[in-house]
Amino acid sequence: MDGKLHNEIISYSKSKEPQESCGFVVLVGGEKIFIPCENASEDKENHFEISPEDYIAASEKGEVLVLVHSHPQGEPKLSQADLQTQLYCQLDFWLVCDEQIHIFPKIPFLIGREFKHGEMDCYTLFRDFYHLSGCNLPDFERDDYWWEDGFNLYLDNMAKHGFEQVKEPQIGDVILINIGADVPNHAAIYVGNQMVLHHAPKRLSKRDLYDGYWFKHTHSIWRYNAWSTLDFTVALNSLDLNLG
């Protein structure tokens, strides 16, 4: 973002403290402009809410690109309520905290994604599910068919990023699966009731029964070592936005 836009957003947010500020970044005539909105929440110091009328007014001026709000009293990360709002509205979020703007790209719906290795694949789904649950995992370059070139990307990274192997799955656990390979090259998330969420090659991301092929070819089950600190509510509720 350019300096003018950055300064406008920071200045407006400071003017609204201790309340949370909010607004949109809109593309108008090829230029990104900030449009402040009234915080319609009843608890303005801890939450924000934008009226439908303000959204319509912003969208009539141009293409709405970003939803902006601030955390004057909080941390530079999205709350569970923020994550749910972002998932529903499908916009990038810019969060103002400590006079800095933290950028959170939009996350596509977890179900119904088209597969593209390295960009929208089983690891992307795994990573996004955990982001919605309060854990940010790194992205990394991965060529297609890496498992045929002597790499073992899942096993090399699970323990390194806080996962430990367990015997029986519980909600949120990661199930590593071998699909025609000697090393695990596919990840699924256990979502309860013998169901997993996953994104197989050449298919849309979906929920599947954890039985048959997936159970037979399971390599191992992994649990985040700070599992009790995670909140899977937004991620699990989002699965009903697009039944699959």
Automatic annotation (TrEMBL):
Listed CDD domains: MPN_NLPC_P60
Gene3D superfamilies on file: Cytidine Deaminase, domain 2, endopeptidase domain like (from Nostoc punctiforme)
NlpC/P60 domain residues: 89-225
Keywords: Hydrolase, Metal-binding, Metalloprotease, Protease, Thiol protease, Zinc
Example of a GO MF term: zinc ion binding
PANTHER family: CYSO-CYSTEINE PEPTIDASE (PTHR34858:SF1)
Protein name: Phage tail protein
InterPro entries per UniProt: JAB_dom_prok, NLP_P60_dom, Papain-like_cys_pep_sf, VirAsm_ModProt
Signal peptide feature range: none
Taxonomic source organism: Haemophilus haemolyticus
Family as reported in the entry's similarity comment: Belongs to the peptidase C40 family.
GO biological-process terms attached to the record: proteolysis
Residues annotated as transmembrane: none
Source organism, top-level taxon: Bacteria
PROSITE patterns (alphabetical): NLPC_P60 (PS51935)
Pfam families recorded: NLPC_P60 (PF00877), Prok-JAB (PF14464)
Keyword DNA-binding: no
